């Protein structure tokens, strides 16, 4: 039965494969970039970033030799910025320890920052045509329905069994085609909602469909209410008309990006009071709060914020923190990688957005 199902999957894939430029290349570097970018990101969103990234960094050595700021700027807006930091770090590791080449083995690939077992399997299968399994979100859903797995998929024992199911789907010499077919089937037919079972090449053998459970698998957890925070941001100007921005620590939330200073408001605190306190603590200077610019309601993966932005003027003191700060002319801010919310503030200033707006940014790192 498993061999017949695998043959049916590959026959379907031969006719229905999605055309993507990173599937037309044999270059492991380009395949690696595509797999990292596709983590947590849809193909249509990722594609223009992929093209621009490779124009800027066409080879692994070009990426390794680039400043991190330039890499983050190329990634700006794609979210989950730890992926960009890990790509940059990995490129330097590969140049130092692997002769500037991406390794072929799953074990060596998973040793790189930001490369998990499924991503490593995808790279090994697609770039090096190895018969190794994958278990990305699409493959996991296909296999869970195929075998009518009712348990929570994150349970270690369940995940181990899904890895074994994925391995057994591979016919000898067909690791690349099987990996891509599983990805495409999950993305286009065996979708999270309203799967098109009538068009599925595996429908004949699918236990979930046989039992009427295709809409109940994978098992869904109870969504948690996301916490909300009021956040104040300051556009602090100096006598030369420059604005103050700071670089976030590389190893933290939104690491390596530049931002306007500010922070969370404490309970019972006024917005202006919170702003003066945060700037004194964060930057070491006193400010005069002038006027409110606007409000942006902003979402991350694990929390929500309401951003209150103010124009401010430096009143006293000198920048005295361990973080890196710069006074930048407004026209030069485009050279810096900023979080999406900070970009929205610049649009508010330029008058291209209403006084209050909403924005959803992908990722938390």
Question: What are its keywords?
Answer:
single chain, 365 residues, alpha/beta, Endonuclease III, domain 1, Nucleoside Triphosphate Pyrophosphohydrolase, 2 domains, five-stranded mixed beta sheet, three-stranded antiparallel beta sheet, 14 helices
Structure write-up:
- With 365 residues, this protein is α/β, with parallel strands linked by helices.
- Helix content is 41%, strand content 15%.
- It has helices at 2-16, 28-37, 43-56, 60-65, 68-75, 82-97, 106-110, 117-128, 137-146, 156-168, 175-188, 207-210, 271-282, 340-350, and strands at 228-237, 243-247, 258-259, 262-264, 286-299, 304-316, 325-328, 356-360.
- The strands form 2 sheets. A 5-stranded mixed β-sheet has the order 4-1-6-5-8, with helices on both faces. Strands 3-2-7 form a 3-stranded antiparallel β-sheet, with no helix packed on it.
- The two termini are 43 Å apart.
């Amino acid at each position: 039965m498993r061999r017949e199902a695998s043959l049916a999957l590959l026959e379907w894939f031969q006719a229905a494969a999605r055309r993507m430029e990173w599937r037309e290349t044999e270059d492991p570097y380009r395949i690696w970039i595509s797999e990292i970018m596709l983590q947590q990101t849809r193909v249509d969103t990722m594609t223009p970033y992929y093209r621009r990234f490779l124009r800027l960094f066409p080879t692994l050595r070009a990426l390794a030799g680039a400043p991190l700021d330039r890499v983050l700027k190329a990634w700006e807006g794609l979210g989950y910025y730890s992926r960009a930091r890990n790509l940059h770090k990995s490129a330097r590791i590969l140049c130092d320890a692997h002769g500037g080449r991406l390794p072929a083995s799953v074990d060596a690939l998973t040793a790189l920052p930001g490369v998990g077992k499924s991503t490593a399997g995808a790279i090994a299968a697609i770039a090096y045509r190895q018969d190794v399994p994958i278990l990305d979100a699409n493959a996991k859903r296909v296999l869970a329905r195929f075998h009518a797995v009712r348990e929570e998929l994150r349970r270690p024992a369940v995940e181990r069994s899904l890895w074994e199911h994925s391995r057994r789907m591979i016919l000898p010499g067909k690791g690349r085609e099987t990996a891509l077919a599983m990805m495409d089937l999950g993305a286009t037919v065996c979708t999270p909602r309203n799967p098109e079972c009538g068009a599925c090449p595996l429908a004949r053998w699918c236990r979930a469909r046989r039992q009427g459970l295709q809409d109940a698998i994978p098992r869904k957890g109870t969504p948690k209410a996301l916490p909300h925070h009021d956040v104040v941001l300051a556009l602090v100007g100096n006598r030369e008309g420059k604005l103050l921005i700071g670089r976030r620590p590389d190893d933290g939330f939104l690491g390596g990006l530049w931002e306007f200073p500010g922070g969370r408001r404490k309970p019972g605190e006024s917005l202006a009071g919170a702003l003066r306190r945060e700037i004194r603590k964060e930057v070491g200077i006193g400010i005069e709060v002038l006027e409110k610019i606007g409000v942006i309601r902003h979402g991350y993966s694990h929390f929500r914020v309401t951003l209150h932005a103010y124009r401010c003027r430096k009143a006293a003191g000198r920048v005295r923190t361990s973080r890196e700060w710069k006074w930048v002319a407004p026209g030069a801010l485009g050279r810096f990688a900023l979080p999406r919310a900070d970009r929205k503030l610049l649009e508010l200033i330029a008058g291209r957005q209403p006084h209050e707006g909403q924005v959803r940014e992908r990722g938390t790192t």
